[in-house]
Amino acid sequence: MNxxxxxxxxxxxxxxxxxxxxxTIVRSGHPWLFADSIHExxxxxxxxxLAVLYDRNNxxxxxxxxxxxxxxxxxxLHAGKPATIDAAWWQTRLxxxxxxxxxxxxxxxxxxxxxxxxxxxxPGLVLDRYDTTLVLKLYTAAWLSRLKEILALFQxxxxxxxxxxxxxxxxxxLAEKQFQRRDGQMLFGDAPEGAVIxxxxxxxxxxxxxxxxKTGFFLDQRENRxxxxxxxxxxxVLNAFSFSGGFSVYAARGGATSVTDxxxxxxxxxxxxxxxxxxxxxxGVANSRHETIQADCFEWLDKATAKFDxxxxxxxxxxxxxxxxxxxxxxxxxxxSQGIQMLALEGILxxxxxxxxxxxxxxxxxxxxxxxxxxxKYSELKTMQHPLDHPAGFKxxxxxxxxxxxxxx
Length: 409
Description:
The protein is of the alpha/beta class. The chain is built from twelve helices and 20 strands. A hairpin with a 5-residue loop joins strand 4 and strand 5 (60-66).
């Protein structure tokens, strides 16, 4: 038998020609190429391989990771002049990403985002740090075939005790079947016993890195939690959609007389109680009355008669797809109207949204309409959006927005 006859010929690089409209979008720096934007391909692509995009003149446009099962068919890694995507390229990209965070966090903060997906040049990948634990969250199956490669790179560049894998729900079945990877799997180190404890501005929190929402904690609201702390002294605080009580612990440390956590989830409220217990060393937390209420927040706000001096309304995303946008805007106006009715004189409303399909202008206007309809005089204290470790490099990445209003009558 001729040995050369048994050797498979090398597979040609996946080459894609895209529509003129898509060319313009890619050149503008957008990191996504949708399936219906592909005009021509030299062969069928496999999830995880690199795809090279060419313009109408057959000149190099960009290179990205191909995902045969996603409407986002290619996630762009590099655009402009041709580049070789090899181990050195990945190492340089990681060093650049980590350098953007260098020196930003004091030793009192050991929980923050190291890699924020597309906006950091790692499309569909998030890496969070919780003290010595790293949590890697994947939103596209394109990364699964590269997992060993990037895992070795992370271990080399980021000292840690363990690395946990979290998977978006839509890729879990494929990951299990083809790659023997599952959500909550340990990639390195031993599984934690219970929540992983980390610090944020000196406050200790527990993150459920194996089963919790996202990667275990909402790190993106760090700056807003700190802002609430500065406003809470002497106030009765309601934290609606409280999750694990992050805003509440900050408010208590800031001198709130009482803090009420409101959430539909028993698990979330138990986490909030544990987080309060972790911070009894702060006089404000030890002296603040802490109450938890398990209820549907929308229903409870509609019926409750209690008054609060500071209310935080930070619901889960109310528009998970574009078709839900109009309904979400109405829901934001309604829930903030409910909150305003419960504010005492000189009360402060902190209203947040994490719905990417609702723009900042649309959300802020919905809250302002609710304020105007209340008939009460109010002033706008500030608006805030993404923190440094959660950059928004393109329109669809702009999800986080928070507005602060103070009411006088």
